[in-house]
Amino acid sequence: MLSERRLQVLRAIVQDYVGTEEPVGSKALTERHSLGVSPATVRNDMAALEDEGYIAQPHTSAGRIPTDKGYRLFVDKLAGVKPMTAPERRAIQNFLEGAVDLDDVVARTVRLLAQLTRQVAVVQYPSLTRSTVRHVELLSLAPARLMLVLITDTGRVEQRMVDCPAPFGESSLADLRARLNSRVAGRRFADVPKLVEDLPEAFDAEDRGTVSTVLSTLLETLVEENEERLMIGGTANLTRFGHDFPLTIRPVLEALEEQVVLLKLLGEAKDPGVTVRIGHENAHEGLNSTSVVSVGYGSGGEAVAKLGVVGPTRMDYPGTMGAVRAVARYVGQILAES
Fold this sequence. Notes:
Elements: H1 4-20, H2 26-32, H3 39-51, E1 55-56, E2 65-66, H4 68-78, H5 86-97, H6 102-117, E3 120-124, E4 133-142, E5 145-152, E6 157-163, H7 170-184, H8 192-196, H9 205-223, E7 230-233, H10 250-256, H11 259-266, E8 275-278, E9 290-297, E10 305-312, H12 317-337
Antiparallel strand pairs: 1-2, 3-7, 3-10, 4-5, 5-6, 8-9, 9-10
């Protein structure tokens, strides 16, 4: 375990390096921070931190920079989440409140996160498998053709055409709409198949084929696998950090183009808390020089998807964690009210 003083030295090194982009020396540390000890003592502490692998010396400088291990200790033990100011919170709320639908919410969230953090923003669309049914609408397009509209609690809307085996009257359609919503509205997707399995039996024999066809279309919509979508923005922000990436920024850009990689980076939506992955903790080699800060968002206190940012390991962790968490909270509120 590091002593309290050495923890303070590490904190000062991280803060200075993030702020100045320059390796940090003992003289600068004692001038900028009230450490209460001499430069010689600070030099000894820095040597101990280097021996433990928390800081390293770049080949061109006498100063030190944090390692992945040093940033990890900083995030876990030394850095609080920086709260957003009241004007910042109002700006977030005003920017997101103007959204007209789910696509607009996601697009605005990506833009906002990229602007707030000046990193690359990634927002996952709410997953159908973690959603609940808000409403099922059935519309008659022709005597034997219907449109099924599924609306989720996250504001997602799925539309499907249904070709019926026989004409289906307006009264039967109204009856099916009412019975269907009384069973599935407010229920989780996983529960729906059991809730509707005996529904055809409530209808006359000549309508049961159509009811079964409608239910089959609904259940197919619930389990479709092409649901994992995400949006990315602010990639140009990485060009500001060119010297933070060894040799070239290209591997980072190539990794960001792969949706599967990004989904793995964000992690499981069921973990709602702020997650920070630093440097080599990211499994994809192209992202070993980056850190990922992500958090779950959703309505009703349950995460239905993740959002986050990707940037160099030399990032303002308290500020980034605070921004990501605040944006997620507002997105959750908008989904709950939509």
